[in-house]
Amino acid sequence: MIDSKPILFSAVQPSGQLTLGNYIGTIRHWSKMQDDYECLYCIADLHALTTLNNQTFLNESILDTIALYLACGIDPNKSIIFIQSHVVQHCQLNWILNCFSNFSELFRMTQFKSKKNNNTINQTNLGIFTYPILMAADILLYQTNFVPVGKDQKQHLELVRDIANRFNFIYNGIFTVPVPLIHKYGSKIMSLLEPKKKMSKSDKNQNNTIFLLDTEESILLKIKNAITDSEKPAKIYYDIEKKSGISNLLDILSAITNKKISCLEKELEGMRYSEFKNILAITLCNFLSKIKDSYLYYRNNTVYLKEVAYNGSIQARLKADLTLNKIYSKLKFLTIS
Ligand code: AQP
Q1: Which of 46, 66, 192, 326 is deepest in the core (most CB within 10 A)?
Q2: What pLDDT, in 10s, does the model give residues 121-162?
Q3: Does the reported pTM lie above 0.90?
Q4: Is residue 107 helix, strand or coil?
């Protein structure tokens, strides 16, 4: 691997099954970047603790997620695939960055506001409040240049940049200040029945969310029931405000076919919504069945998955240590060698 390539970091939580939102918003871009960037793809198991329930078997979900990364084209010979908790430096840097961040910054985070929504603050676990700082540690530890993420992570990335700049100002440029890569289309896939809110893996109504490993019947049904609108006569075009349901379905079709939205609008002109949904459902089933087949192939080889994670963690730890050692030295921690 050539070290002069720009560094790219991205992660997904293994807190259940990965969604079409995770895939379209970020994972689909990963494999294309492996040749031009030095890529680190992390399985963010520590982050998953913030929303874990006692039905989740984290160890199984982690293996599922590694298998899905591979099925989505991540090549461990080109990219580093690793598990966050296997690289202790994430927690070490997290603590340091905590001491350079403010309560008010975290309190402004819209994800915190929406995730604590149904609880009082007193009952909300502290991880939900502080996880953007752990995210900053994840990214800054590797001197990351670029972070491909969905739109929902934009505010967190701004915080990461603020923390990096603050630290750099005091300690004379330790961190690379990362740039988020957020695509114009598909960076926020919306819930199927409530297209004003994000498609999420933890949504209580599973009909809102397509999971990458959903059965064909389930995908057909979910798309069939997706909310559209009552415009008469029905017209298929992209308008997030007025036609959030149709625009979301167009975003999905565009992402999996690699066709521009404007091109799809022409192709679908004059069609009924039900016909459009049919095309989308079939295209999506075909698309996901290839990922599913490949996933099953890898998932049946636990030894290989663990080997990938083991090798990845060794490589990640070496890189993480370089940054952490620099920081310890700048902070004037005592070193005894
Ligand atoms: N609906 C989405 N559209 C586009 N991108 C999305 N991402 C998530 N949902 C969408 C992107 O996926 C990456 C990893 O997300 P994550 O698993 O770390 O957690 P999340 O953003 O909190 O995703 P969920 O599904 O909404 O999880 P829960 O329900 O646990 O909160 C990120 O780059 C994210 O932008």
Answers
A1: 66
A2: 777 889 999 999 999 999 999 999 999 999 999 999 999 999
A3: yes
A4: helix
Q: How far apart are CA 214 and CA 55, in angstroms?
A: 19
Strand-by-strand arrangement of the 146-148 sheet: 80-83, 38-43, 7-12, 146-148, 179-181
In the block, which residue shows the tokens 């918003």? Answer: 25
How many folded domains does the chain comprise? 2
The CA-CA-CA angle for residues 96, 107, 41, to 5°, reads: 55
Query: Residues 316, 80: contact at Cβ < 8 Å?
Result: yes
The verdict on 156 and 274 lying in the same domain is no
| Locus of tokens 């609108």 | 229
Q: Are 128 and 136 in contact (CB under 8 A)?
A: no
58 CA distance to ligand 1 middle (Å): 17
Q: 30-54: string of b/e by CB count within 10 Å (b at 16+)? A: bbebbeebbbbbbbbbbbbbbbbee
In angstroms, the CA 214 to CA 19 distance is 9
Q: Point out the ligand 1 atom lying closest to the alpha carbon of residue 186.
A: 4
CATH number for the domain spanning 154: value is 3.40.50.620
Q: Name the E strands within the chain.
A: 7-12, 38-43, 80-83, 146-148, 179-181
Q: What is the pLDDT of residues 185-240, one digit of tens each?
A: 999 999 999 999 999 988 989 999 999 999 999 999 999 999 999 998 999 999 99
The answer to the question of residue 191 being in a domain is: no
Same domain, 109 and 151: yes
d(CA 211, CA 189): 12
- Are 271 and 236 in contact by the 8 Å Cβ rule? The answer is yes
Is the shortest distance between the CB of 25 and ligand 1 below 6 Å?
yes
Best residue for ligand 1 mutational test, from 52, 157, 193, 200 (most atoms within 8 Å of Cβ):
200
Structure token digits, residue 227 = 């909310």
